Amino acid sequence: MIYKSIAERLRLRLNSSDYNVGSPLPGEKTLAQEFGVARMTIRKAVDLLVVWGLVVRRHGSGTFVARKDVHHETTNLTGLVEVLRQQGKEVHSKVLLFEVMPAPPAIASQLRIQINERIYFSRRVRYVEGKPLMLEDSYMPVKLFRTLSLARLEGSKFDYIEKECGITISGNYESLTPVLADKQLAQTLNIQEQTPLLRITSLSYSDSGEFLNYSVMFRNTRDYQVDYHLRRTHPETPLAHSPEDHRQ
User: Fold this and answer.
1) What average pLDDT does this structure show over 108-129?
2) CA distances from 137 to 9, 34, 52, 198, 216 (A)
3) Which of 84, 194, 211, 234 is 20 to 30 Å from 27 at the Cα level?
4) What confidence tens digit (pLDDT) does each residue in 20-35 have?
């Protein structure tokens, strides 16, 4: 439902540096104009934020940020190219497909855009030390990245988004699933069929709450390992974040 998508985008916005606890939300009329929906839809979206405990309504004053629930920190989100280059490894990408296409319903839902809105679709293979590591299918809204090109995709996508476009990547949602390589994946990654792979879906968002990139990746886990150091936190101690959480 559209109000749930709006609530999610507002949640991301509230977690950005633009808002502090106690900051007021824009009024329903302003938000309705921004999202192009009825005020009732905005009201239902804000109702969800209230249920989540993120905002509080004050009669006669408006709606204010009650708390934040950030689960992803920029300091812990590092691009694959950045990580491997820090390890002194040679990394490059080969772009197999790059085209503009109308967003199908499933992708539009992920990026929170209109169905058939123009998006870039790219398919590339990431190589480390000359060996194929990962196949990645990526979807990015054209309206946010007018200068995206094949040459830029051969480098770091994080660098392009942040350094060239000036957009801060605030966080990333990921889902990991083990799969076995089919014939096409085996040929592309130069591995045997039925080789265990890690299927990763990744959704990146900006500090303004816009969804920037949705990717589906298949990673050869035999040649690349990701280590996570997760600390248990207790109510009486400050939240600690690990610097070893490497993604994409």
Assistant:
1) 92
2) 24, 30, 33, 14, 5
3) 211
4) 788 899 999 999 999 9
In whole angstroms, give the CA distance from residue 208 to residue 167. Answer: 9
DSSP symbol at 165 = S
pLDDT at 118: 97
Region of 83 please: left (phi>0), alpha (psi -120 to 50) or beta: alpha
User: What DSSP assignment string belongs to 169-180?
Assistant: EEEEEEEEEEEE
Cβ 98 vs Cβ 152: under 8 Å: no
Q: What is the pLDDT of residues 132-156, one digit of tens each?
A: 989 999 999 999 999 999 999 988 8
Tokens representing 245?
């959480």
CA-based nearest residue to 66, from 20, 111, 32, 13: 20
CB within 8 Å of 137: residues ≥ 6 apart = 121, 122, 123, 215, 216, 217
Look at residue 62 and give its three-state secondary structure.
strand
Read off the tokens for 148. Answer: 């995206």
Nearest to 7 by CA among 212, 204, 209, 169: 209
Q: Is 170 exposed, middle or buried (0-12, 13-18, 19+ CB in 10 A)?
A: buried
CB 47 within 8 A of CB 6: no
Q: How far apart are CA 85 and CA 4, in angstroms?
A: 39
Q: What is the pTM for the complete model shown? A: 0.62
**Amino acid at residue number 136:** E
Residue 42, classed as helix, strand or coil, is helix
* Alpha-carbon gap, residue 30 to 36, rounded angstroms: 10
In this predicted structure, what is the pLDDT of residue 238?
47
Torsion of CA 219, 222, 223, 229, to 10 degrees: 80
The residue ranking higher by pLDDT, 180 or 79, is 180
